[in-house]
């Protein structure tokens, strides 16, 4: 039963090889879908290109279906996988800061790596910016961030538990929401001035 | 212009297909290693390794660096670093296949290259801070977090894109 | 495009509805009596006070100390970074929040070993992973870490090494006597849980 490495079904020395393979898949798909272009990414905020929403939502739903069906067939033990811990304050504030970073910089860390690899100078500069940002954070951690970083710890809850419904019901709702979003966003570009990039 | 746009369209993968394949990659990652994707974590490792190399004692004294700097193996020998090396390889392969390898600064015609680069740095810095505070970036916190249906993933996603939409109007000149 | 996308949408909805209609399974992992017996026989559930002191000093980001004594005793004296989950609150949601973090090394302690052992049994029964007991509890802690006794000449070399380590630890924790003002309750130390420790644990963080 998965996950194979934490369950010690295959050796831990496979860890890094699998990391590399996962990365190649991730990078190939991101670049192939056009995530190496900041103007294509920013399109999601201005309604001229919804590739981010489509890829993002489809990937999350596919993976959620996969993981929870796997659990149902007992192929994977979901109590062994990493669930992001919820520290409400820092998750929210961090998210808002990243939102500004996205709209100003046009990339996020993963996509900037893809952009940099195909020669986007703005993406390389963006990575330099992340480096500086983390360095600044590290230097001022105890002074500025530590308190909010650790504030409002709520464990590592799952969203259907937080909402008090079953996981299946939540996945159904998410699927319907995604289909609606896909359909609506397919109509929007008709009303928005086209942007060539 | 028309031709170029058409050509680009053909070279990009159908977004739903890309999303489906990306979902399979996430399942693969969880099934084998019990963890999902990430990106900012690798850059964090690079920062820690640099600080550790330049000022080891400083790194040990800091609550932020110490957990990584005090270990015996290099902070660069981490899962996410290997994953990001993979991302580079994957992106390069795709770029070569699609013929997109080209050194350039991509920006809206309304701003200069210089403005774009300054904004890119600024955005990067914000992402650097935000990803540390939020325990992960768009891939690690939002995408992977949503895939496992963790509450944190959804909160993160709503915060990032909510902010993006709320303030998009003020920054429209950079993009359209 | 439309026919293809409509078909895909229908497949997605069928999968989603199918999942709703599937009979429910219970994945919570209460251990059976035999598993419990095996777990109890395994001595690795204990950590010595030296090991715990070491983890605190090294700021092990995965360490989560859990004080199972009543709140009054906790506020009087506790170990640095510990959270207070009295025995009767152990099955509440608030406790689950801490205990369900697979990646953390959760160490129970009380004055002796009795309450912490009960807490350990309960949490084992509930299927929580990576839980330990600090052997001898706070009594042992004060005896060995806060007020270590110097070994007599002629005792083996290791006894002296242990003593040196303990003296260092003693200084770190405020030395000589039990320091009641050491940092109190609150959120556990956090940080990306990348340290590999112990057997079989959940995977570490994302990004």
Number of helices of chain B: 9
SSE series of chain B: HHHHHHHHH
Largest interface: A-B, 135 and 124 residues
User: Spatial order of the strands in the main sheet of chain C?
Assistant: 1-5-4-2-3
- Basic shape of chain C: elongated
Shape of chain B: globular
- For this structure, the quaternary state is heterotrimer
Largest sheet of chain B: none
CATH architecture of the domain at 33-141 in chain C: 3-Layer(aba) Sandwich
Gyration radius from CA atoms of chain C, angstroms? 22 Å
- Stretches of chain B where pLDDT falls below 50 for ≥5 residues? none
**N-to-C span of chain C:** 36 Å
Report how far the terminal alpha carbons of chain B are from each other: 16 Å
Helix content of chain B: 55-70%
Structural class of chain C: alpha/beta
Average pLDDT across residues of chain C? 76
Percentage of β-strand residues of chain C? 5-15%
SSE pattern of chain C, N- to C-terminal: HHEHEHEHEHEHH
Write the layout of secondary structure elements.
The complex is a heterotrimer of chains A (197), B (176) and C (207).
Chain A: H1 15-32, H2 38-46, H3 51-72, H4 88-105, H5 109-117, H6 121-150, H7 159-163, H8 167-187
Helix pairs in contact in A: 1-5, 3-8, 4-6, 5-6
Chain B: H1 2-11, H2 15-33, H3 40-54, H4 56-61, H5 66-69, H6 79-98, H7 113-133, H8 138-147, H9 151-168
Helix pairs in contact in B: 3-6, 8-9
Chain C: H1 2-21, H2 33-41, E1 46-47, H3 49-57, E2 63-67, H4 71-76, E3 83-84, H5 93-99, E4 105-109, H6 114-125, E5 131-134, H7 137-146, H8 157-172
Parallel strand pairs in C: 1-5, 2-3, 2-4, 4-5
Helix pairs in contact in C: 3-8
Overview of this protein structure:
The complex is a heterotrimer of chains A (197), B (176) and C (207). With 197 residues, chain A is mostly helical. Chain A has eight helices and no strands. Chain A has two domains: 1-82 and 163-197, no CATH class; 84-157, no CATH class. Chain A has helices spanning 15-32, 38-46, 51-72, 88-105, 109-117, 121-150, 159-163, 167-187. The radius of gyration of chain A is 19 Å and the shape is globular. The mean pLDDT of chain A is 90. Chain B starts with a helix and ends in an 8-residue tail after the last helix. Helices cover 70% and strands 0% of the residues of chain B. Chain B has 176 residues and is mainly alpha-helical. Chain B is globular, with a radius of gyration of 19 Å. Chain B has nine helices and no strands. Chain C is α/β, with parallel strands linked by helices and 207 residues long. Chain C has a domain at 33-141: 3-Layer(aba) Sandwich (Oxidized Rhodanese, domain 1). Chain C is elongated and about 85 Å long. The chains are: A mainly alpha (197), B mainly alpha (176), C alpha/beta (207).
């Amino acid at each position: 039963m998965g996950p194979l490495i934490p369950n010690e079904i295959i050796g831990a020395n496979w860890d890094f090889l699998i990391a590399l393979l996962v990365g190649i898949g991730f990078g190939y798909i991101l670049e192939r879908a056009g995530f190496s272009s900041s103007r294509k990414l920013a399109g999601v905020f201005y309604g001229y290109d919804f590739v981010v929403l489509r890829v993002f939502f489809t990937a999350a739903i596919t993976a959620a279906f996969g993981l929870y069906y796997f659990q149902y067939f007992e192929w994977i033990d979901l109590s062994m996988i990493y669930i992001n811990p919820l520290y409400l304050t820092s998750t929210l504030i961090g998210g808002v800061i990243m939102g500004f970073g996205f709209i100003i910089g046009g990339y996020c860390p993963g996509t900037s790596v893809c952009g940099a690899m195909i020669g986007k100078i703005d993406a390389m500069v963006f990575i330099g910016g992340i480096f500086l940002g983390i360095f600044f954070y590290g230097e001022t951690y105890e002074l500025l961030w530590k308190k909010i970083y650790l504030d409002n710890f709520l464990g590592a809850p799952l969203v259907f538990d937080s909402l008090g419904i079953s996981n299946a019901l939540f996945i159904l709702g998410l699927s319907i929401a995604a289909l609606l979003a896909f359909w609506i966003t397919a109509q929007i570009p008709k009303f928005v001035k086209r942007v060539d990039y | 212009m028309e031709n170029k746009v058409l050509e680009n369209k053909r070279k990009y993968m159908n977004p739903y297909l890309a999303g489906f394949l990306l979902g399979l990659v996430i399942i693969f990652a969880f099934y084998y290693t019990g963890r999902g994707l990430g990106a900012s974590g690798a850059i964090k490792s690079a920062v820690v390794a640099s600080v550790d190399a330049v000022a080891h004692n400083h790194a040990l004294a800091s609550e932020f660096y110490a957990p990584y700097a005090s270990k015996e193996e290099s902070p660069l020998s981490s899962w996410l670093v290997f994953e990001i090396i993979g991302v580079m390889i994957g992106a390069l392969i795709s770029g070569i296949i699609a013929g997109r390898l080209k050194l350039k600064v991509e920006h809206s015609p309304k701003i200069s290259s210089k403005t774009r680069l300054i904004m890119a740095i600024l955005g990067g810095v914000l992402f650097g801070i935000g990803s540390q505070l939020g325990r992960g970036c768009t891939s690690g916190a939002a995408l992977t977090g949503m895939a496992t249906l963790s509450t944190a993933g959804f909160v993160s996603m709503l915060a990032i894109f909510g902010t993006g939409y709320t303030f998009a109007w003020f920054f429209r000149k950079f993009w359209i | 495009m439309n026919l293809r996308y409509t078909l895909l949408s229908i497949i997605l909805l069928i999968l989603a509805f199918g999942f709703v209609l599937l009979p429910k399974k219970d994945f919570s992992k209460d251990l059976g009596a035999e598993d419990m017996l095996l777990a109890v026989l395994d001595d690795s559930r204990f950590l010595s006070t030296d090991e715990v002191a070491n983890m605190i000093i090294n700021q092990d980001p995965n360490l989560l100390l859990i004080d199972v004594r009543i709140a009054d005793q906790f506020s009087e004296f506790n170990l640095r970074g510990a959270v207070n989950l009295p025995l009767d609150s152990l099955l509440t949601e608030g406790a689950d929040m801490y205990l369900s973090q697979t990646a953390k090394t959760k160490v129970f302690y009380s004055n002796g070993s009795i309450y912490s052992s009960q807490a350990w049994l309960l949490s084992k029964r509930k299927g929580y992973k990576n839980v330990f007991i600090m052997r001898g509890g706070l009594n042992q802690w004060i005896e060995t870490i806060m007020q270590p006794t110097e070994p007599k000449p002629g005792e083996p070399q290791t006894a002296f090494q242990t003593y040196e380590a303990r003296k260092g630890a003693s200084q770190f924790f405020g030395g000589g006597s039990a320091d009641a003002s050491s940092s109190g309750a609150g959120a556990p130390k956090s940080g990306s849980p990348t340290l590999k420790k112990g057997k079989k644990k959940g995977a570490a963080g994302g990004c």
